[in-house]
Write a sequence for this structure.
């Protein structure tokens, strides 16, 4: 990891701290409200977060391009602490309001992060730098989740949530150490976003993020409850932590390998893991298959997450980085949102949700297959032509 530059290291440290606090709390959110007999509040809070994340990502791209990723990330960070604190207040309306603010803030934070990561990286190291970033974020979230599981079992939710609200503020302060990297030329950012969102090739590639984040929506929504019902509350933290532990072990090497061998090989492997995981969850009434399904899906998350960061840089025509990133994040969050809504509709029959997931995965793969046979340079050329037309 010696090739990772200092700016990427500082960015990664800031997100390590942010998601040590928020990432852990997010995975207990539905369980927390479920224990209070208000599971629907946890679901609707998540739905609001990801709906506003998706809705505001195009505007976030304009703001990041105009004011710089550093400023936008700094502005967004404190909202993560605010959201955690509202969970402790006995006001459903306040939780929903904080969820809306958090979704808007998340659009600024993550569009800014992806933009900054690509701008701070050499083209040949997009994958390895993205992998390094994912290792640090996952290390923060994984440690936070394991420790939170222990604290919740000892002290319930109140004191641990209050403690965890401090860490996004520390992450916020660390982001001030970043250099201010931004695009120099002035452009019509709204027109660029419109062209990115109407590029057929870019939309097809963005479907990777849709299915990956659709599965993430399941891990946030119904899988923690299934773990609780099948194995017990303690195992929610243990098994959910794999979504952080596996990236620590595999993300850097996945990203670096994609720099050397090409992104398409990692994407092919990713779809195999998705199908294995979803098929296992269909028969998850047996603990062994539940564990196997979670292992496959979280391993997929570990290897594909840095590819999505890097892919935005690979395919972006000159001067259009934030518009392509906005497209990717909008589609990704529509994936999470769709999973949360579907899991609410069929919350009493999870097997239907898993079957729907398999169908969506297969459709996404066959849409992508022709593109995955092309070289990245050819794909970038196709997107450039579509955005110029």
């Amino acid at each position: 990891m010696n090739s990772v530059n200092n700016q990427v290291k500082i960015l990664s440290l800031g997100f390590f701290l942010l998601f040590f606090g928020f990432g852990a709390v997010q995975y207990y959110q539905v369980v927390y409200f479920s224990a209070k007999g208000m599971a629907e509040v946890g679901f609707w809070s998540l739905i609001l977060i990801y709906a506003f994340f998706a809705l505001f990502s195009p505007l976030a791209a304009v703001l990041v391009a105009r004011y710089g990723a550093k400023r936008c990330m700094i502005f967004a960070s404190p909202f993560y602490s605010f959201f955690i604190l509202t969970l402790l207040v006995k006001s459903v309306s306040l939780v929903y309001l904080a969820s809306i603010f958090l979704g808007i803030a998340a659009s600024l934070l993550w569009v800014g992060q992806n933009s900054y990561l690509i701008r701070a990286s050499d083209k040949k190291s997009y994958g390895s730098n993205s992998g390094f970033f994912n290792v640090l974020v996952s290390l923060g979230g994984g440690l936070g989740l394991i420790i939170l599981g222990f604290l919740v079992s000892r002290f319930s939710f109140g004191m641990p949530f209050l403690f965890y609200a401090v860490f996004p503020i520390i992450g916020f302060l660390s982001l001030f150490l970043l250099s201010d990297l931004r695009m120099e030329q002035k452009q019509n950012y709204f027109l660029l976003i419109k062209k990115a969102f109407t590029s057929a090739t870019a939309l097809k590639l963005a479907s990777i993020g849709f299915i990956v984040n659709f599965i993430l929506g399941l891990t946030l929504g119904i899988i923690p409850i299934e773990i609780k019902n099948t194995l017990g509350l303690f195992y929610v933290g243990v098994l959910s932590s794999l979504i952080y532990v596996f990236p620590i072990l595999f993300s850097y090497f996945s990203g670096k390998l994609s720099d050397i061998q090409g992104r398409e090989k990692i994407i092919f492997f990713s779809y195999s893991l998705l199908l294995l995981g979803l098929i296992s969850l269909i028969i998850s009434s047996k603990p062994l298959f539940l564990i196997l399904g979670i292992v496959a899906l979280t391993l997929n998350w570990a290897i594909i997450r840095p590819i999505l960061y890097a892919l935005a840089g690979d395919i972006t025509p000159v001067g259009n980085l934030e518009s392509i990133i906005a497209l990717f994040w909008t589609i990704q969050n529509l994936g999470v949102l769709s999973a949360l809504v579907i899991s609410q509709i069929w919350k009493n029959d999870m097997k239907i949700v898993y079957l729907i997931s398999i169908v969506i995965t297969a459709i996404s793969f066959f849409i992508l297959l022709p593109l995955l046979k092309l070289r990245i340079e050819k794909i970038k050329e196709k997107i450039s032509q579509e955005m110029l037309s």
About this structure: The mean pLDDT is 85. DSSP finds 18 helices and no strands in the chain. The radius of gyration is 19 Å. The longest helix spans residues 6-35.
